[in-house]
DNA sequence: TCACTTAGTAAACATTTTATTACTATTATC
DNA sequence: GATAATAGTAATAAAATGTTTACTAAGTGA
């Protein structure tokens, strides 16, 4: 019982801990608005073509909004639309190479800042960190998959 | 070298992994706008009274914006302002009990959804998870503090 | 076939967020 | 003590986001 509470609190602490990095993500990004960024980020993480409805649900944004947002992203060359062969009403949206590049550039920034700090840990701590990180990712994934 | 790359990639994966929970955070929150939420969340994490300049820097938001945002939050009873005894130009902003409650309610939601999934892991996995989570938090904190 | 639902678009409108400029009262510096 | 820098406020315009209603074309199911 009390162990559960402790774990959940540590989980919340972890999220808080990473919160700062998250807000960093979209700082230098003057090329895109918040929502545009949000959509791009989501597309990147999902790693697959999606129709507007799926994006709408995933981001909790009205489909009417997405029409314009995606039209702009397409015009700038970050996304492409193609008709869904299985449903003639729908369109499949996917990232262009240029679109992927933009997102990857942002992650590279975080990635580098992380390494800067990481190498200040001593060797044993680095190993512990690596092990704990990996374990956590595996278990988190497992928790999601079983849901 | 290659181990560094691997670790940094796992770190990015962890952030991605937790991303979903983040966007959950402000879903049901109809009472506050994004920025208002942002400010509240920041205040909650910092756990101390701050002046506008500090909040402005921390959130990367112009102080001119904060004037109104904070005035509204104060009017709704989520924040209180008091003159800074050390600097007569400045005001110290802090969360009211009502303000803390609002933020805590949101975290409780995440907290509960986390536990739901967590209890599906077997006992050994739960122990591993706990250990890894704790280790990671400790080391992340250490990395930050040494920065 | 006929009613019903769904994917996407459109336009009008309110609200929020961002950006710019300017001002007062302090504080810091020299 | 004069001058410059800083904390906060104010007012405004512009851009972005959110909401509502309505429409077309395509799928669904009796």
From TrEMBL, chains A, B:
Residues 1-145 form the HTH marR-type domain. Pfam families: HTH_27. SUPFAM superfamilies: Winged helix' DNA-binding domain (SSF46785). GO terms for biological process: response to stress. GO terms for molecular function: DNA binding; DNA-binding transcription factor activity. Gene3D superfamilies: Winged helix-like DNA-binding domain superfamily/Winged helix DNA-binding domain. InterPro entries: HTH_MarR-typ, MarR/SlyA-like, WH-like_DNA-bd_sf, WH_DNA-bd_sf. It comes from the Bacteria. PROSITE patterns: HTH_MARR_2. Keywords: DNA-binding. Transmembrane segments: none annotated. The keyword DNA-binding applies. PANTHER family: HTH-TYPE TRANSCRIPTIONAL REPRESSOR YETL, TRANSCRIPTIONAL REGULATOR, MARR FAMILY. This is Transcriptional regulator MarR family. It comes from Geobacillus thermodenitrificans (strain NG80-2).
């Amino acid at each position: 019982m009390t162990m559960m509470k402790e774990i959940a609190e540590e989980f919340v602490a972890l999220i808080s801990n990473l919160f700062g990095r998250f807000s960093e993500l979209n700082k230098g990004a003057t090329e895109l608005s918040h929502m545009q960024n949000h959509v791009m980020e989501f597309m990147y993480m999902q790693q697959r073509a999606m129709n507007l409805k799926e994006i709408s649900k995933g981001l909790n944004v009205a489909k009417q909004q997405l029409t314009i947002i995606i039209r702009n992203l397409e015009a700038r060359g970050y996304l492409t639309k193609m008709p869904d062969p299985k449903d003639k009403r729908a369109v499949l949206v996917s990232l262009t190479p240029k679109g992927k590049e933009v997102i990857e550039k942002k992650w590279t920034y975080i990635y580098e800042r992380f390494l800067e700090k990481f190498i200040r840990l001593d060797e044993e701590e680095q190993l512990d960190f690596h092990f704990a990180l990996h374990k956590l990712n595996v278990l988190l994934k497992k928790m999601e998959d079983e849901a």
